[in-house]
Amino acid sequence: MMEPRIVRAFSVFAVLFGIIAIIMGMSPIAEARAEEVYTVHDIAVDFSAKSAADARAIALAKGQRTAFERLLRRLVLSEDLVLLPNLKDGKISQFTNGYIINEERLSSTRYRALLIFYFNKNRVRKLLRQHRIRFAETISKDVLVVPVYDDGAGDVLWEEPGDWRTAWLSRTAIEGLVPIILPLGDVMDMGALSVAEALAPVREPLLTLAERYGSKEVVVAAASLQLPAEGSKESAPRDLKVKLNVVNRTSQKAENTGEQSSPARNVPTSHREHGSVEGAVLQLTVHRVGEVGEKTVKELLRGLPSESKADLLGRAAGWVVAQVERSWKQSNMLRFEEENKLRIIVPLTGLTDWIEMRRRLSELAVVVTTDLVALSRDQAQILLYYLGETEQLILGLEQSDLALVFQKRGWVLQNENTGATQQQGRKNF
Questions:
Q1: By CB distance 3.0 to 4.6 Å, which of 34, 299, 328, 349 could disulfide with 284?
Q2: CA within 13 Å, CB half, 265
Q3: Contact 347, 409 (CB under 8 A)
Q4: β-sheet bridge partners, residue 48
């Protein structure tokens, strides 16, 4: 039974909280960040028909389908996309809450616009659960990508040639769950990290560089391009023949994370900038470095007929992003069949701290709800209901700069910048 003094304090705080919540228009579980995941931006449409009205109707229907497919690719593992039902346009509209039209242009027979679609989170969740399709909603913090490139003349990080960096800068925003950022490559970056440290990889300078950009995760993407000699009948160096056969078979799957042996260096006799790179071999070595651990994967990609060097490097950048996204989704799958609860202490310096903490918890996809058990001037005690294991909860909290730490008094939740030592969820690349 609570002491009367605590009961009185709780009552006062509860009343104040209710008043402020009403003033701020705050719902119990706003899930603002989850709603952000279910919003799809920048859907460009351009259709012609017998009339502007017909063109507009076709454009909105096609745009809605494109947005819905992009949303599902964002949430679902690529290997599970084949499990999705083939829905008609009318059925897809049942999952749509609305849309916004930007940059609208029309003529007598043509309609062009840039659209934003808002999808109903609960209905999409229900669809995926009905078909037993795994999915994730948690948005990661920014991941810093450091591109290292070797076209046969040696590994290059900050200097020219910048073909590999250009491939990353040219990527169209796909709006996945993992925001990808690139370093500026200015004088400060050059002084912070050398190419040797990036390839090793050496944790301290990499994480120092990441900190400059507000990130705690770094992906060193090293690409080594081997072009066949002009006029050569060999599509690849002889010592790569067997390895490429294995890679070509396995890479037909959506996202192959199998590690391949590194081929011997074969400095190309041709540095063609344009035209097909059919038969070229691109070796990718990807190091993932974070606060907890490291992981390295390798892959070989071969130039396709009529594929330019820029296309090959662009495809390679897409492969790296796919691995990062896949790893993140696997670590953050929503397990609706596995709901747990945890009693947590939240240190406070005032009522506004509790309001802010409650808001931030409400934005996490892994959090189902929170029950306030007791509230005093210096702390709140809550029951937090969440999906999956505690490690997944900790990982989700980290994305909102929250640290869940076990102390003598129990589980304590506080801001990461308080300096608390956190027990982090394990992430595998």
A1: 299
A2: 9
A3: no
A4: 110
